Amino acid sequence: xxxxxxxxxxxxxxxxxxxxxxxxxxxxxxxxxxxxxxxxxxxxxxxxxxxxxxxxxxxxxxxxxxxxxxxxxxxxxxxxxxxxxxxxxxxxxxxxxxxxxxxxxxxxxxxxxxxxxxxxxxxxxxxxxxxxxxxxxxxxxxxxxxxxxxxxxxxxxxxxxxxxxxxxxxxxxxxxxxxxxxxxxxxxxxxxxxxxxxxxxxxxxxxxxxxxxxxxxxxxxxxxxxxxxxxxxxxxxxxxxxxxxxxxxxxxxxxxxxxxxxxxxxxxxxxxxxxxxxxxxxxxxxxxxxxxxxxxxxxxxxxxxxxxxxxxxxxxxxxxxxxxxxxxxxxxxxxxxxxxxxxxxxxxxxxxxxxxxxxxxxxxxxxxxxxxxxxxxxxxxxxxxxxxxxxxxxxxxxxxxxxxxxxxxxxxxxxxxxxxxxxxxxxxxxxxxxxxxxxxxxxxxxxxxxxxxxxxxxxxxxxxxxxxxxxxxxxxxxxxxxxxxxxxxxxxxxxxxxxxxxxxxxxxxxxxxxxxxxxxxxxxxxxxxxxxxxxxxxxxxxxxxxxxxxxxxxxxxxxxxxxxxxxxxxxxxxxxxxxxxxxxxxxxxxxxxxxxxxxxxxxxxxxxxxxxxxxxxxxxxxxxxxxxxxxxxxxxxxxxxxxxxxxxxxxxxxxxxxxxxxxxxxxxxxxxxxxxxxxxxxxxxxxxxxxxxxxxxxxxxxxxxxxxxxxxxxxxxxxxxxxxxxxxxxxxxxxxxxxxxxxxxxxxxxxxxxxxxxxxxxxxxxxxxxxxxxxxxxxxxxxxxxxxxxxxxxxxxxxxxxxxxxxxxxxxxxxxxxxxxxxxxxxxxxxxxxxxxxxxxxxxxxxxxxxxxxxxxxxxxxxxxxxxxxxxxxxxxxxxxxxxxxxxxxxxxxxxxxxxxxxxxxxxxxxxxxxxxxxxxxxxxxxxxxxxxxxxxxxxxxxxxxxxxxxxxxxxxxxxxxxxxxxxxxxxxxxxxxxxxxxxxxxxxxxxxxxxxxxx
Length: 1000
Known about the structure:
It is built from 48 helices and 8 strands. By secondary structure, the protein is mostly helical. It starts with a helix and ends in a 6-residue tail after the last helix.
């Protein structure tokens, strides 16, 4: 039996009594989505409706149809535990179903991805997990997300696509919401359809699902279905199906008026009417009347079940109702009551759980309990799960402990729940549980003794969880409170009153500093590391890992504050201390800072990074190893050693893929470098399609660096893509720089020169405000802006206009490039080969802007780009050839043009091929593969008209010169504009001149 069939059979027990009517449009949309998934177009369908309208009924019916067509359907649920939450519950449940059903391919994925075992029941066994750093846990969480995506992809095939239904997303925990967003971002060609349902009427303004739905709704593979209540005719069909015959018109109108088309309310009203009762006024009255008609033992069981929410494990419910005594009679009474509750359509079986037929019924039963009854039931659940911990998860125990007002047991259960959340890599839930522990702490005098840890330890754990969850400010607050807990007021720095151990104070301040760095509060981090070092100042000289970490963190904070001298001293001391203390992790951290500080010898910096790499590898710290590899790749690239950079990025990407860290921070950085190096070395081919585009921000960054090659290839949509990325939903200034600069270049190539110049200035101003006035990318933007201005000035001169305003703008851009090269040098070191090349290019473009043929300036730019930057070297040779031609050196111009054209053709740089060919034709240069002079583009008369227009003549004057009417001249000019793709006479003249259609 397939997973889908098994699930549907169970679900049918909860909704099979009522007929399925109407909803044809929604069923068609869902089945179409299933078909698209089978054809390699995965997606997510979000089904929203008010409670009771019929979401589950629709999904169950569609699941039956999809299964009949061959799909594998898995249905899982979120549950309501208030603020507690069970991390990844719907996905863990789905994975469990797939493994239990022996779904082909899934077992192999689980075996190959150890992180997935955390979500399976067997994953809880074994020894405690080792202590992980925040980066390690982020990496492992990414491995877990990758594993879930791989398991779902393996479970589906084109013939049997996987349909994963996630019910009640309004109750989803934070980690499940994160995982859902990740999966949607990953969708490419997998035969998988995700379907999520939620109560629209539960989504208040601050509900955590609201922003997730808004974000998902913008994704092209996400479809939203809003399920309305029944219309009058649909309700008639529904009630007829329930009753087996049409209702009297008056009865139907009363049910329609009371239910307002809500299917569940209408069904309950029908049930009450069938029992001979007057129709109650509200749904709560209906449900209360249904419960009161049951046997007292059944009522007791149903009330006990309601305290667990809509669903409860059968063994747990049995333990609560039967009690600790192993009395066969009581077990028999439980079984009889359960059968009666199922027979009366109050409870149903759902896999391993007992569930209310509808969540509204569970809520109504629980709300009807007196407060004391609620507390007593929660305590019964707590006692039952305490007697047999296997009956409930730590989070469920914490939930019942809190609602039974047992602070001590709630504290213990919340701490266990935090550990469990940490084990399954759910930091947001872990933080929430730890905050509960801290809130309960003052009311439990024996808290430290019961937990076996001090409050400061819980604070540190909460800070770490906050950092891993991306809640930097919350992490800082927890870490700061931990410092305050061991160091009394007024004792900061030198004072160590009340016996506070200096080493512990220093370690806590170092931890606080690292959280501050994570939150980009650099000045505060530097102050905390200063205080940490002061606390350790009077200790003996015994090597100490705490001192090593304090020094290493101080070095990083000083580095980020541009206090390079302090950073170097601290980093060097940290390396010595770490080596003496055997703290390899602190040593690697400090070595990276030292390498960044080496500005005058990139080879020495690379040597330091290599040592750090080996230390990280020896310590088994994959995340730091990847970080070192990234820094080595950056070192080689900015040294102009592109072949070495390519080799290093290749090694790093293999490590990232092997470790499941493809989309970690440094995995992404390595991928960006790989694309940049590939482009710089002249590989302009579009990237191979991938089924794994990564999370949205990473995907935007990758799309951004791929714009370099797109512009060089001359992709028709390059301008639109660049502008779309520039104005996309990201807050990454690097994407703004790269996508924006490429858009400037593409606009210039498209002849949209005013837009190109305006955008270059806009980018320089915007990025200067975020980074600094002299950010190095400003040299590139300035050179591109001057190039656009030079094209404008050339057009002005051809049209007889004064280019003086362009010259003023160009002078300012050149000055910015020169000053940036002087003041913005990396950490006071030498400008790298790429920076020097673009500075030389800015000077050469400025000479072109002035109308001066300066072969020397262009030759200097050629020399600077000749470090392996293949595309820009060819483009610069084109301009060099143009300058040589203008200076009268035709032979040298021909050689430069021939070299540029050969490279452009080899790379597939179509716009550059056209530009060099046009130059050769216009200048009558002897270049292989180019026929000099002439053109078949324009007729003889059209060429004559355009030549006279280039002299500034009007249509009437041209007509008089050629002895034709002004109207005929207008017709010829329209044809010229159409053939050249020009928007006006001036642009047509500029294009014709550039393409050699008007002679030299």
